Amino acid sequence: MFCSQCEECLLQCSAGLNIPILMRSYMYAFGYHSPWKARETLDHIKLASVPCLNCESCSVKCSSGFDIKRKATDIARILDVPKEFLV
Ligand code: SF4
Ligand code: SF4
Predict the structure, then answer these.
(1) Which residue's CA is the closest to the ligand 2 atom numbered 4?
(2) pLDDT score of 46
(3) How many CA atoms lie within 13 A of 59 on its CB side?
(4) Does residue 10's CB lie within 6 angstroms of at least one atom of ligand 2?
(5) For the chain, is the Cβ count within 10 Å smaller at the N or the C terminus?
(6) How many angstroms is it from 13 CA to the middle of ligand 2?
(7) CA 82 to CA 65: how far, in whole Å?
(8) Please, which residues have CB within 8 angstroms of residue 63's CB and are 6 or more apart in sequence?
(9) What whole-number distance in Å separates Cα of residue 26 and Cα of residue 35?
């Protein structure tokens, strides 16, 4: 659940995603149950969408063994929720 923010994954995504930020957002949503904070975190990197669904194999190797593609796809759904519904 909790990303150490070690940044070993930072340059590994072939699509240039900022994985530590995505994992921080995931942690807020699913670890701290704060979807508003999760969305605010994603908004810092002005992410319109997450390209993971179109990626056949994930090139990112997380030092904590996270399934980055699954987690990034999970947290990306928050971009579809209108902000006024987030607390
Ligand atoms: S390698 Fe894993 S633990 Fe480290 S910052 Fe990336 S997602 Fe977080
Ligand atoms: S699945 Fe997502 S995180 Fe993994 S390489 Fe593709 S775009 Fe990057």
Answers:
(1) 58
(2) 86
(3) 11
(4) no
(5) C
(6) 5
(7) 32
(8) 4, 6, 8, 9
(9) 9
What pLDDT was estimated at residue 42? Answer: 93
Q: Which of 20, 28, 15 is nearest to 62 (CA)?
A: 20
Q: Is 81 in the pocket of ligand 1 (CB under 6 A)?
A: no
- Full-prediction pTM beyond 0.90? yes
Q: How far is the CA of 58 from the centre of ligand 2 (A)?
A: 5
- Pocket test of ligand 2: the residue of 8, 26, 55, 75 to mutate, having most ligand atoms within 8 Å of its CB, is 55
Domain map (residue ranges) of the chain: 19-80
